[in-house]
Amino acid sequence: MPKKPKVQAYRPPQQPKPVRSLDERTVRRTGPRFPVGLAIGGIAVVGVATTLIVVLSGGGDDPGNQPQTDKGYDAMVRALEEETGSTLARNVVVYPEYAVIDVPYKPDVPSDEREISYYWDGDLRESTKGTGDEELFDLSRVDSSLLDGMCDQAVALVEEPGDCSLYIAKPDPDDTTPEWIRASVSNEFGQSGSVEFALDGTVIETRPPS
């Protein structure tokens, strides 16, 4: 006998889902929420903590390592004295982040032209050796508080200036304009300007780009 076909039980048609309104579709959060003020305060605390970590780890610019500042220059002079037992030098070129000091090989023998160049950027180390005939002077004679601002006067002479340097050396006894310190700056176009100062910070001569 042939099999009877299987008859499916009757099921009513499925009703479409009702369309929900925007308000009904909006998720309602019922858990605890942080106030906005508390969140902002937490961000501020994190920012302060981050800054403190950077400072404690040596981040940022340290004035004690910048020889064009009074603290930096004085630290450089102390380091030289600790290393050589003297603060005598033939000249020093002071850049924003480091300095190069030419000191006599034998400070007690002025006629000996041998010299050692030291590099200082917060740490003092020997750089090169050579000879020089500039007259010795004591670096501690320079009033470090006068250095700050000297470069500003030179920078004002040149458009789009690069880094400014300070060249410090004892003037020749026969020099009618006793220049002790010269602030110099130039730009990428080869234009340069300088301001010359006496030991007491008095401006002796200003040389704008020619």
Mean pLDDT: 81
Principal-axis shape: globular
Q: What is the string of SSEs from the N terminus onward?
A: HHHEEEEEEHEEEE
**How are the strands ordered across the major sheet?**
5-4-3-2-7-8-9-10
> Strand fraction band?
15-25%
Distance between the termini: 121 Å
The secondary-structure class comes to alpha+beta
Number of helices: 4
Task: Give the total of beta strands.
Answer: 10
Helix content: 10-25%
Low-confidence stretches at least 5 residues in length (pLDDT < 50)?
3-10, 12-34, 38-60
Q: What's the main sheet like? A: 8 strands, antiparallel
Please tell me how large the radius of gyration is. 36 Å
Report on the structure:
With 210 residues, this protein is an alpha+beta fold. Among the domains are: 63-140, no CATH class; 149-207, no CATH class. The chain is built from 4 helices and 10 strands, in the order αααββββββαββββ. It has helices at 22-25, 36-56, 70-84, 150-155; strands spanning 88-89, 91-94, 99-104, 114-120, 124-131, 137-138, 165-168, 181-186, 192-197, 203-207. The strands form 2 sheets. Strands 5-4-3-2-7-8-9-10 form an 8-stranded antiparallel sheet. It has a two-stranded antiparallel ribbon with strand order 1-6. Strand 2 and strand 3 form a beta hairpin. The termini are far apart.
